[in-house]
Design brief:
Length: about 325
């Protein structure tokens, strides 16, 4: 079974309009509404591929009740911890020839006391459910800048069986994991901008990613750098790959990275080869962008797209 961890879930509202008028009134049709947050979106993808997944989440306030109610309609199970503060909203506006604008609340602050409860609950869940894959997804609003480093240490030192750990985090949380942690995840997935932040360098091209990976050889087995419509660059253990994806009719790209991570978790659970992992993961990300929902994929689309993914080995260590 796969466990996803979302410590800052949201209620997502996705609007579509031909032209967005900044500073003026804009009238929209009824939005697509669904629970969100990176781990929830990844869970939705995994469940769409008929694989068992449990989503661990925080829920609070009226929004938390709405999210919980909506989660009962999903194909995956959830375990939630109640918090006092209100769970957040996230708004996506698709407009002006495939431009998307996001308005995302910061979310509730997580105390040190709640952190300890969280870590203990996660350990109990992993032990009770024979979890093999743990995916830590998205932001956490905590004054502890090493929150995820401490979670990673707990996962590496307190579990009695071997697990694969995916960490889809960004900004300082990612930098701290890569540069300041004794313990390592098995997988990270920065985008171009986030990858550049690791080295305080602006990176805009796949060729730059390839050169940086050659130069630094990050001590994490699997590094997938997503490059939008240009596909991705991946370090899979001792090899670097340039991955290209097909062009599609874009509907909503929000959550494509989360769907990609869901595809990776699914692939690890099913013991895919490295190239099969890349093919499945990228196909999930592309398939998500063809849907109005977030983290939503169809098995039919994933299968068709996976055949159109091009994978080229560009370096070996």
């Amino acid at each position: 079974m796969i466990l996803t961890i979302t410590l800052n879930p949201s209620m997502d509202y996705i609007y579509h309009i031909d032209h967005f008028n900044l500073g003026k009134q804009n009238r929209f049709n009824t939005p697509t509404k669904m629970p969100g947050g990176k781990g929830i979106n990844a869970s939705r993808t995994i469940a769409s591929l008929n694989t068992e997944v449990l989503a661990f989440i925080f829920l609070g306030g009226t929004n938390g009740k709405i999210i919980y109610k909506e989660l009962q309609k999903e194909k995956f199970s959830n375990y939630h911890i109640k918090i006092e503060e209100e769970s957040r909203n996230a708004i996506t506006i698709m407009h002006d020839n495939e431009t998307h604008t996001e308005i995302v609340e910061k979310g509730p602050l997580i105390s040190e006391e709640k952190k300890i409860e969280t870590f203990n609950s996660i350990l109990e869940i992993i032990s009770a459910n024979h979890i093999n894959i743990v995916s830590v997804n998205g932001s956490v609003n905590s004054e502890n800048e090493f929150f995820y480093n401490e979670l990673l240490e707990v996962l590496r030192t307190k579990i009695n069986h071997e697990i694969i750990i995916l960490m889809d985090v960004s900004k300082e949380k990612l930098k701290n994991i890569v540069n300041k942690s004794k313990y390592r995840p098995d997988f990270i997935k920065p985008n171009l901008f986030e990858f550049g932040e690791l080295y305080d360098k602006e990176i805009t091209e796949k060729s730059e990613v390839i050169e940086m990976l050659k130069l630094h050889n990050i001590d994490i087995p699997y590094v997938l750098v997503s490059c939008g419509g240009d596909g991705a660059v991946a370090k899979m253990k001792n090899k670097i790959y340039d991955v290209s994806i097909p062009s599609i009719q874009l509907v909503n790209p929000t959550g494509s990275g989360d769907a990609t991570v869901g595809g990776v978790a699914y692939s690890f659970e099913n013991h895919f080869s490295d190239e099969e992992i890349l093919r499945q993961a990228m196909a999930c990300g592309v398939a998500n962008a063809m849907e109005s929902g977030v983290g939503v994929v169809s098995q039919e689309n994933v299968n068709a797209i996976s055949k159109q993914i091009t994978i080229k080995e560009v370096h070996s260590f």
